[in-house]
Every structure is written in C-alpha cells, then in structure tokens.
Amino acid sequence: MHVVAGVLVDGAGRILIAQRPPGKHLAGVWEFPGGKLEPGETPLVALERELDEELGIAVDPFSLEALVRIPWRYGERGLLLEAILVRAWSGEPKALDAAEIRWLDPRDIDPAILAPADRPILASTRLPSHYPITPPDVSAQEAVDLLTSALARGERLLQLRLPGLPVEAVRAVVERLLPTLRAHRAIVLLNRDIEGALAFGEGVGVHLAASQLHALDARPLPLSQTVAASCHDAVELALASAIGCDFATLSPVHATASHPAAEPLGWPRFAQLVEAASLPVYALGGLGPDDGMDARLHAAQGVAGIRGFL
Question: Is the model's pTM score more than 0.85?
Fold first, then answer.
C-alpha cells in the first residue's frame, strides 16, 4: 500500500502532527497527516487531496519537497510511506479527521507517541544535511577545538571518533563540550561507546560499528538519545532499522584513501539501497560538503565525512 504523509512546517520551524481518532488502526497515536493513494493518483495529487480532507487546507504545489520514503510492515500489512515537506498553504489547519492536532518543534516531540512508521520521518526532520566526523589522528585538545568551532558555525550533529585515544580521554572531550552542546541543542555521537553515551544522557548518542549491529537485538539507548550505525550493504541497513537506529551512514560511495580495498557503491547503487531502507541515510566515502545536492538527488539525508567538514 502506497501512503503519502505531509510534513507541514510553519515560519517558526514547528511541524504539525495529528492524533489518530478512536476506531481507527493505531487509535490514539500521533502521525503526520495524509493517507493512501487512490487508483491513478500521483503522490503529490494524493497529498493535496488528503490535506484538504483532513486539515481543510490547500497546499501550494510549488512549496512541496520530498523528504524521505519509508518501507514498513505492520504485521502482514506492508506499506510504502512517502513523506513530503509542505512549506506553504492557504487556510488554517483544523482537525477534521483527527482527534487533535498540534504544532511542535521537532526536537520537542517524543518519538514514543508516534506510530512506528512515522518515527523515521521525525528523525529526518531533525537531522541536518551535514554529519561531520572528527579526524581519527587528532589529539583530545584538537578535537575540542574542532568541535567547538563547528558548533559556533552552526553544525548540530557531530561524531567523535578518536580510535587512537583511550575511552576515558574521549569521554573527557565530551565532558568539556557538554555545556556548549546543550546550549546549542546539538548532538555528539560517540563512536561505538554505548556505555559512555548512556552515562552522559541528553545531547550524547552513539554511532555503532557494523559489527555491533550484528551483535545487538534491540536499540541500545532510549529514544531520547540518538543512535546511528555504519552500514555497507542492504543487510546492515535492515539490521539498523530492526534495532531502531535513528539514521545510518552508507559507504563508500566513491573510492577513498582511508579504505582503498573497499569497492565503491557509486550513486546508482547507493540510491537503490537507500530507497529500500526504512531510516534516513547519509552518504559517506569520498565526498565533501559540496556533494550535498548529489546526495539528496540520490535519496540521501545528506553527506557525512571528515575532510572539508571540520
């Protein structure tokens, strides 16, 4: 079943969620408004119709932007949920087909209140287009300086990966950054360090190695903390989704000096894998900040990398 969902964004950056009414599947949970395509409809035509019926608004078709496509299963029922950003419309949204509607900052929405298929959509609204990763060979002080500068210029999602330093030294870097992270409502992900992320709580998450994906059978952190994973193929993307990761990186898109033996995916194969994944995915490997448009055109959330990002 092909379903379309509208992510309405107002001038303050808030998004609209709707509560499913009594008597419907998943009654009481919250979701992004929309519905299934009727025979012969395109996703955009279906979205215009659904938002007219559910909210009483007329969307501006020139304001629409593809966000993310989520294949999902509820038991034996499979669906493809296509989320589309809506930035302009006429009329005041009303709860015509919902128990209630609310406008909220995406960062203030508890994912636990959403229908499971809608949680990756929320994750996509929260995620920026860049995901910088620290160079592996810098010192603790250099890492502090790099991340502080990145936060000052607006980066809000960062990975702290310092494989040459002891775990305690890496955690000390986070300790020094915590006040700045929380002041900016930014997030730093510790590479592999689940216990460290749990200890820090708000503002700190974990980026799992592919090997950890194969060892885990559940999400290792609460929904309030971000979990990401390094993936290289369809199996690992499926594992990341199954344990409830918020996003993944998929690599290498192009050849890289750091992993010369790894066969590059190329953009066509990358897009094929991402479109079948059930979570937002960053492109990684041989890319820089200027590759963001190519990444979006091939279904990525954005680009991740080291060189050129920090």
Answer: yes
